[in-house]
Design goal:
- The chain is built from 5 helices and 16 strands.
- It is α+β, with helices and mostly antiparallel strands and 317 residues long.
Length: 317
C-alpha cells in the first residue's frame, strides 16, 4: 500500500453573547472538509533534483575541466594547455609565406618554435590529386615536418572514399620537462561508414621523432585533471557503438596507459551525464526505487536529500 498524507480542514462554530431574551442558539455541527489524499510519489521534487545536479556539475567541472577546444569551428588556434601566446596577424602571414597555400591552425610561441597544422590539396596535371594534412614546427625561417598523411581531398569526400586526416589534438607538457609536447591524432574513416579509427602520436618538445602512443576505435576527446603533473592528460575514447562504455587512458611519453586519475575521469563523466539529466527541462524522476538509489549513490547524495527523494518511492513489501 502506498503511503499517503491526510489533510483535514475543520471550521469551529464561534460563540455569540447570550441574553435572557434570546432563544437558545441551535447547536452547530462542526464542518469537516473532505479528506484530501496526497500521494507522496507524485510530490514534485524537481527543484531538489535540479539543486543536486547543479552542485555535482560544479564539482565535476572543477576536477575535470572541459577540453581546451577552440571557441569556434573555424578558429585558427590549436588547443593548448597552459599560458599560450599566439602569433599575431603579421607573424601568421610570415609563417604562411613559408608553407603551401591552404588552411592553417597555429600553436603557441614556444622556445622551440610554433607548431602549425596545415591542410592543402596537391594538384597533378591541373587537377586535384591528393589531400595533404601536415604538422610542422616553424622556428624563424626553419620549417621542420613532424607528420604528414595524404588521402582523398576533403572536397571529394563521399561514400566509399578513404577519408584520412592528421591534426594536433592538443599541445601539452606530457613528459614533465616544462615544455609543451605535440599530441597528434591521425584519423581514418571510410565515407558513409560510421567507423572512426584514431591513432595518437607524440612528438616531444625540441624533437622530431614520432612516438606511436596507441590506436583507438573511437571518437577522441581530451580531458585534463587538475592538480597533477605528468600523466594528468587524459584521453577519453568514445566508441562508435552507442551501447559501449567510453574508456579513459592517461597519455604518457611512451603510450596510452591505465592510471588512477583516468579511472576517476570515467566516473566523473558518468556523474556529469546524470547530473546534466537532473537539470534538464525535460527531466522526469525515476519510478524505480533501486534505480533512484543507484543514481544517488553515483552522485554521492546522502542525508536529508537522499531520504526525501527515496521517500517518494517506498520499498516494496
Amino acid at each position: 500500500m502506498r503511503p499517503h498524507v491526510v489533510l483535514v480542514g475543520m471550521v469551529l462554530a464561534g460563540c455569540g453573547k447570550k441574553t435572557q431574551d434570546s432563544p437558545p442558539a441551535p447547536a452547530k455541527t462542526p464542518v469537516v472538509a473532505p479528506a484530501v489524499i496526497v500521494d507522496a510519489a507524485v510530490v514534485d521534487h524537481s527543484a531538489l533534483y535540479r539543486v543536486i545536479g547543479q552542485r555535482v556539475l560544479a564539482e565535476v567541472d572543477a576536477a575535470f575541466p572541459a577540453p581546451p577546444v577552440p571557441a569556434a569551428a573555424d578558429d585558427r588556434n590549436i588547443p593548448a594547455i597552459g599560458e599560450c601566446t599566439r602569433p599575431d596577424a603579421i607573424e601568421q602571414t610570415g609563417i604562411q609565406s613559408l608553407l603551401p597555400d591552404g588552411a592553417w591552425r597555429f600553436g603557441c610561441k614556444d622556445p622551440d618554435g610554433i607548431v602549425v597544422e596545415q591542410q592543402f590539396v596537391r594538384e597533378k596535371g591541373g587537377h586535384r590529386d591528393k589531400g595533404v594534412w601536415r604538422v610542422v614546427r616553424v622556428n624563424g625561417k626553419k620549417v621542420t615536418k613532424l607528420g604528414e598523411v595524404t588521402g582523398t581531398p576533403e572536397v571529394d569526400w563521399q561514400e566509399w572514399a578513404q577519408e584520412n586526416t592528421l591534426g594536433v589534438l592538443v599541445l601539452a607538457d606530457v613528459d614533465g620537462d616544462g615544455a609543451r609536447d605535440v599530441v597528434m591524432e591521425q584519423t581514418s574513416t571510410e565515407g558513409g561508414v560510421p567507423h572512426h579509427t584514431s591513432v595518437l602520436q607524440l612528438v616531444r618538445s625540441t624533437a622530431t621523432k614520432v612516438t606511436r602512443l596507441g590506436e583507438l576505435d573511437a571518437v577522441v576527446s581530451v580531458h585534463l585533471a587538475l592538480g597533477t603533473k605528468p600523466g594528468a592528460l587524459i584521453v577519453g575514447a568514445f566508441p562508435n557503438e552507442s551501447d559501449k562504455e567510453p574508456t579513459y587512458k592517461c597519455i604518457t611519453p611512451a603510450a596510452l596507459a591505465d592510471c588512477p586519475v583516468a579511472a576517476q575521469a570515467a566516473v566523473a563523466e558518468k556523474k556529469r551525464d546524470l547530473a546534466t539529466w537532473f537539470t534538464s527541462a525535460t527531466f522526469t524522476p525515476p519510478t524505480d526505487r533501486a534505480v533512484l538509489s543507484g543514481d544517488l549513490d553515483l552522485l554521492g547524495v546522502q542525508g536529508d536529500e537522499r531520504a526525501r527523494l527515496l521517500a517518494t518511492l517506498p520499498a516494496k513489501n
